[in-house]
Amino acid sequence: MIVKNALVASVSVAALAASTFTVSAQTDLAALYEAAKTEGQLTTIALPHDWCGYGAVIEAFKAKYPGITINELNPDAGSADEIEAIKANKGNTGPQAPDVIDVGLSFGPSAKAEGLIQPYKVSTWDTIPDSAKDAEGYWYGDYYGVLSFLVNTDLVSKVPTSWADLKGADYANAVALAGDPRAANQAIQGVYGAGLSTGAADAKAAADAGLAYFAELNKSGNFVPVIGKAASTAQGTTPIVVAWDYNALAWRDGFAGNPKAEVVVPSDSVVAGVYIQAISAFAPHPNAAKLWMEYLYSDEGQLGWLAGYCHPIRFNDLAAKGSIPQELLDKLPPAEAYAKAVFPTLDEQAAAKEVITGQWDAVVGANVQ
C-alpha cells in the first residue's frame, strides 16, 4: 500500500483535510492518499464493469486505497450524459455530482472551453504521448480501441467481415449500435466508421455517408434501434453489435461459449478511438479524484485496462520497459487486424459529431433506446 511511504513532516492531517493538490508531476502519493481518505469517497459515472476491465480496476483501487468508497453513477451513460451531469451539479456536493469523467476525445476540448474540468498532471505525465493530452493538463488520453462487430454465431451463420456485408439480406433485424448516436461517442464513431467505408474523402462527407448508410440499413429492416449490449446479443435481440473491440472481446469472453460468438474487425474501415479522463471543475472530492488518476496512469492501472482488452495510452512505454505480461499480449487480436486503423483528429471528430448528432433523427429516423 502507498501509505508505507513517509508523509512530508510538515503536512498535518488537518491541513490535508482542507487542501487540494494542484497540478504537479511530483505529487507525494502518500499525502494525497491521506487527503483523499479524509474526503472518504470518489464519485464516478458511466463506467460499466465490463467496459475496458473497469470492474476489476475499481476493485483493485478500493483494495489499494481502503477508506475510500466509490459511488458509481449511471454505468450505461454516454459521454454527453457525463458532461451534462457536471453541468447539472455545479453547486451540488451530494452523491449525484461526478468527480471524474471518462469520455470520447472530442469532449475534452469542449469541456475545457466551457470551464467544466480542472487541470491535473499525474506523476507519469511525461510518458503520455503529447498528441493524446492537453498541454495544460485539463484532459489526457486513457486508452484506445477500434470498432468491431460482435456476432452471435448461434444465430448468425454467415459472419459479416465488412460494413458492406451488413447491408445483406442475411442480417435482417440483426444490426445494432452500442449506444445512441445522438449522445454516445461509441455510437457516433460507429456511424462515422460506416461512412468511411464508402470511401468518403473528409470527416463531413464520412458523417453524411454514415447517416445515409444507417438510413438504408433502417429502411431495409437490418437496423435494430436498441442500444446493443452483451445481454441483448446473448438473448438475440441484437445478434450483431457494432462496438469497440475491447467491449466486444470482453462480452464474448463473458458468454463462455453460450452463445458462441466472434469478434470481427471490418476489412473496409478500421476506426480507432481514444477516450480521455478528466476531473470535474466542481468535484466534491478533488483529492480522491486525483488519487484515482494517479492509479489509472500507474503501471498497475494501465495493465488493468489492458487486461480488459483496451490498449492503454502508455502502452508503448510499458512495452519498452518489458512491463507487459506475455499472457496479456497473447490475448490481444493479431496486429494485422489493426493495420488499416485510422485515428480521426479532434477537428474531424468534432465535424462528424455535429453532423451525426444533429441530423440522425431527420436522416435515419430511428429512435435508439
UniProtKB/TrEMBL annotation:
One of its GO terms (cellular component) is outer membrane-bounded periplasmic space. It comes from the Bacteria. GO terms for biological process: thiamine transport. The keyword Transferase does not apply. Residues 1-25 form the signal peptide. Pfam families: SBP_bac_6. Keywords: Signal. One of its GO terms (molecular function) is thiamine pyrophosphate binding. Gene3D superfamilies: Periplasmic binding protein-like II (3.40.190.10). SUPFAM superfamilies: Periplasmic binding protein-like II. This is Iron ABC transporter substrate-binding protein.
